[in-house]
Amino acid sequence: MFFGLREREARSKPEVPSGGKPRLKRKKKETTVNKASLKTAPIGVFDSGVGGLTVVREIVRQLPDENIVYFGDTARVPYGSKSKNTIIRFSEQIIRFLRTKQVKAIVIACNTASALALDAVRHEFDVPIMGVVIPGARAAVEATRRKKVGVVGTDATVRSGVYTRVIQGMNPQIEVTEKACPLFVPLVEEGFKEHVVTKEIIEHYLKSMRDGDIDAMILGCTHYPLIRSKIREYMGDGITIVNPAYETAMDLKILLEKRELANDRSGMHSHYEFYVSDAAEKFRCFANTVMPFDVPETNVVNIEEY
Ligand code: DGL
């Protein structure tokens, strides 16, 4: 069921906080012991709802030995129309919840939360936290030949301008066009992938991008990879479509290896737990259409308590 790991060369720095205190000699043994037990600890992944499953799917594919705890904030989705302060507060609560599951690293699968909350939370918690923006941006920078990149995402992500900043930080000559496509999220959630209205809305949002001269486009929202084939059909073959989930899983692998946190107990069954803030059964049904295995159980958490 799982695909093999794709080998790759060491890449640029993963999206994790730098630094770390110099270790005292007498502490060394303790640190080593902790690391050994941390290796089997799960990775926490969270999103505003179901969309982050596209990232979990990639992590499962590329890191099949890792255990995962997923939280989908189904009670408070969408994040894409909310303010920065609210998204930071939601992210902090979810990270506090994931910490109760002894996670060894956290992936913010949500583009909106990566765009608006990553900087705040990564300095607040002592667990490595990475987002999806830098991996996605880097893939687009590598893909574009004409130095023209398009980014589609939620209102909040596009308003933040984070993709433009990160891409131009990597290569100032690249021109970035961002476009908010808020209706893609409900279309995906309602299972409207094959519906004619999806085709029309794709055309409505993406016509100017298709008529322009971008040659790489980032799907800067967790849900969009789920209608990727429709977007690809409309945009044509001349454009590289970047799904940040793929690059994020690769960066996570590098992060875990660098910190000696990768689970090397291969052969054991990996364990996946799913939590949501509401509508567990709806989530579970959706998850079963995305994940390469049966999602047997989803638990509801009162996230406001964290
Ligand atoms: N998960 C969000 C993102 O990737 C999309 C859904 C939402 O607006 O919450 O930006």
| Terminal residue distance | 36 Å
Helix and strand pattern:
HEHEHEHHEHEHHEHHEHEHEHE
Rg calc: 19 Å
**Number of domains in the coordinates?**
2
The CATH architecture classification of the largest domain is 3-Layer(aba) Sandwich
* CATH topology type of the largest domain: Rossmann fold
Per DSSP, what share of the residues sits in E-state strands of 2 or more residues?
A: 5-15%
Q: Roughly what is the average pLDDT, rounded to an integer? A: 90
Explain what you see.
The chain has 306 residues and is of the alpha/beta class. The chain folds into two domains: 36-131 and 247-305, Rossmann fold (3-Layer(aba) Sandwich); 134-244, Rossmann fold (3-Layer(aba) Sandwich). Helices cover 42% and strands 14% of the residues. The chain has helices at 28-38, 53-62, 84-99, 111-116, 118-122, 133-143, 155-160, 162-170, 184-189, 196-211, 228-235, 244-258, 280-290, and strands at residues 43-47, 68-72, 105-108, 129-130, 148-153, 175-180, 216-220, 240-242, 272-276, 299-300. The protein has a six-stranded parallel β-sheet, sandwiched between helices. Helix 2 (53-62) crosses helix 12 (244-258), helix 6 (133-143) crosses helix 12 and helix 10 (196-211) crosses helix 11 (228-235). The longest helix is centred in the N-terminal third of the chain and has 16 residues, at 84-99. Bound molecules: D-glutamic acid.
